[in-house]
């Protein structure tokens, strides 16, 4: 009878050790999976979140905070739909985001495995979107990362890593007579770009 109890105890102990080892392996696999999750993947999940809770808060590299919802994600940028007081879509390079204030439920949901994204969205870069703004002659407000300086005008050209901005008053069409100057702006210097109120992002 004692031997039966001994073997039953031994079997229980081995089962417990096996469960503990399996849990440790599952935890390590989860850590490995999370190590491969990029910020853009999590922002992509946040684009489909329920908007019944408070808006997300994006702390930007210029020191400002944008209360907005994610409306699109590209290879190296995010499109934001501000809740207030800004009018117009916002385009931000991922490098312009310092942190995102997110409800805990969305933190957990965005860390779960996500479905494969389309390869097209993976190829749409910040420069590609800016070239579309050039084509459509959309007026913009550009907020620079250092010092939070704000420039308004129209993007004339977009290169590989910078764009040409013709400076003029916000909300006005680009007319040669109204242009007050020109700037070459590196992509890396941009914190975020606001489109004129009536202009769609793409």
Automatic annotation (TrEMBL):
Protein name per the record: Fis family transcriptional regulator
Species in which this protein is naturally found: Microbacterium marmarense
């Amino acid at each position: 009878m004692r031997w039966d109890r001994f073997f039953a105890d031994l079997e229980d102990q081995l089962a417990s050790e096996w469960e503990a080892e399996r849990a440790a392996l599952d935890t390590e696999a989860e850590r490995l999976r999370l190590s491969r999750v990029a910020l853009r993947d999590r922002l992509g999940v946040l684009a489909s979140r329920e908007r019944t809770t408070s808006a997300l808060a994006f702390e930007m590299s210029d020191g400002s905070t944008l209360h907005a919802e994610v409306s699109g994600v590209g290879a190296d940028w995010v499109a934001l739909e501000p809740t207030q007081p800004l009018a117009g879509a916002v385009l931000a390079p991922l490098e312009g985001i310092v942190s995102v204030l997110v409800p805990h439920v969305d933190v957990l949901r965005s860390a779960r495995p996500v479905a494969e994204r389309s390869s097209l969205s993976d190829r749409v870069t910040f420069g590609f979107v800016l070239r579309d703004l050039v084509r459509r002659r959309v007026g913009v407000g550009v907020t620079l990362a250092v010092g939070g300086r704000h420039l308004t005008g129209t993007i004339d050209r977009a290169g590989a890593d910078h764009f040409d901005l013709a400076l003029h008053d916000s909300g006005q069409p680009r007319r040669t007579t109204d242009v007050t100057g020109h700037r070459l702006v590196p992509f890396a210097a941009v914190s975020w770009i606001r489109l004129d109120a009536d202009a769609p992002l793409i």
